[in-house]
Amino acid sequence: MSHDDVEFHVADCAGTPRVFESFDEAAGFAVAVAATGKDDVVIDVVIWSEDGARAYAGDDGVENYNEDPDASVFERIEIKVNNAGRVP
What secondary structure letter does DSSP report for 22? Predict the structure, then answer.
């Protein structure tokens, strides 16, 4: 899914924010960052309009967006990786 009014923000290992146009790209990057051992890796979903909210989450997304259209983050997804080590 890609829409001009939807962004996915993920901080890299140095804490520098990166912006992605698709969830798939952001999720892959977030998992890679989390796999390095960094704690508190999140994907912040940023929605800039009702159209963006509809594209991301349908009518429920529009309803949630309209509850607080000035929210800095529409949705935060926490990413955690558990390195279980070698498997014999």
Answer: S
